From TrEMBL:
Ranges for region Disordered: 78-122
Gene3D superfamilies: von Willebrand factor, type A domain
CDD domains, A to Z: vWFA
Top-level taxon in the UniProt lineage: Bacteria
Biased composition (Basic and acidic residues): 87-109
PANTHER family: BLL5662 PROTEIN (PTHR39338:SF6), BLL5662 PROTEIN-RELATED (PTHR39338)
Protein known as: VWA domain-containing protein
């Protein structure tokens, strides 16, 4: 196949990996259509893709996001329905993009808004007892069996190749058989932290927790979301917490702004490199889930996250109130796909919960139905 055809075939494969129904004949037709069109612009390629790969109407927005991520390579796919509300995605290597906007001064639940506000944040060191959490988190995470194997003296399967090698080196004598077993490795930990205005009182603690998790676990990933999506894992790998949080503060542009939880989570899932972090992972979302307007995007995103993750948990500071019930339309919609809906109002409750992720527990829906 000509080298020039590789990006177009790669786009068809990308769609198939994300459960789009793309037949081999459609991929061939796509490349033929591009050839016939010239093409003279990226819009010609886009029109050829729409005509031949035929995404369903309900997944058109996701299709457009994959197209931008694949062909423009700017890691900023548009997920929201309107251009003036597109979700920006920023990796650790990103740059500041727009000037800050004025924000309304609101209180309580009214701080949850879809309006974007760009600002900076400063973190100060204080005593919080996260040292013990950092030391324990790696061994406390759920484990899985790896496809890699290690040698063992018992409770393994016969390593035929090494056993035969031992027989040859021993001139035909039969020594003790060589055994191997599959390794057990911790699962990935993915933290998605809401930095919108309604979470302002808890953001600093959540970032400190995320830093301890990245320092203690080998495979921890951290993203922030509000009106934009930002990956801050590399910044949190700096051992000194003050320096790490200072770097994270520079990376994130949408501190204390509005909330577009559904579109930002869909943006996360639309980037293959990011959505791979969720596959088989323990995913913990730190948010109040106060989604303004239609919650259809949030429900769709949570269902897809649940399908990829080993365990999907929502930690909300609202659950720290004994009177709390998942009564909002958004929470009622996503409750069936959540494994956990827990208290996220304090560092102690969060660290205790994360350290218990390896232990089985009833589903969030079962627990909250009994409470209600």
């Amino acid at each position: 196949m000509p080298r020039a055809a590789a990006p177009f075939l790669g786009f068809a494969r990308l769609l198939r990996r994300h459960a789009f129904a793309v037949a081999p004949e459609q991929a061939t037709s796509f490349m033929q259509a591009v050839t016939l069109l010239g093409p003279r612009s990226m819009n010609d390629i886009r029109e050829a893709a729409l005509a031949t790969l035929a995404p369903s109407p309900d997944r058109r927005i996701e299709f457009e996001a994959h197209f931008r991520a694949h062909f423009y390579a700017d890691a900023r796919p548009s997920i929201a329905g309107e251009e003036d509300e597109e979700t920006r995605i920023k990796d650790d290597r990103g740059t500041r993009e727009e000037e800050s906007q004025d924000a309304r001064q609101e209180k309580g639940g009214e701080l949850s808004s879809a309006r974007e506000q760009l600002s900076s944040r400063d973190f100060q060191r204080d005593a919080d007892g996260l040292g013990a959490f950092r030391r324990r988190v790696a061994s406390a995470l759920p484990a899985r069996r790896s496809f890699r194997t290690i040698r063992t003296r018992s409770r393994g399967t016969l390593d035929l190749r090494r056993s035969l090698s031992e027989i040859v080196s021993a001139d035909g004598d039969i020594p003790s058989p060589q055994l191997r077993r599959r390794q057990t490795v911790p699962r990935k930990l993915l933290l998605l932290i809401d930095v919108s205005g309604s979470m302002k009182l808890h953001t600093a603690d959540y970032l400190k927790l995320a830093h301890a998790a990245v320092q203690g676990a080998d495979r921890a990933e951290v993203f922030t979301f509000g009106t934009r999506l930002t990956r801050i894992t590399s910044a949190l790998r700096v051992r000194d917490r003050d320096q790490a949080l200072a770097r994270a503060a520079v990376l994130v542009d949408d501190w204390d702004g509005g909330t577009r939880m559904g579109p930002t989570l869909l943006a996360f899932l639309s980037v293959p490199r990011f959505s791979a972090f969720a596959r088989g992972a323990a995913v913990v979302i730190l948010s109040d889930a106060l989604e303004r307007g239609d919650h259809a995007d949030l429900e769709t995103a949570m269902r897809r996250l649940s399908a990829r993750a080993f365990r999907l948990s929502l930690a909300t500071p609202l659950a720290g109130d004994p009177r709390f019930r998942p009564a909002t339309a958004a929470l009622r919609a996503i409750l069936p796909v959540l494994d956990d809906l827990v208290d996220g109002s304090s560092l102690k409750s969060l660290t205790d919960f994360i350290l218990s992720l390896a232990r089985p527990a009833p589903s969030a829906e079962a627990i909250w139905k009994r409470v209600s």
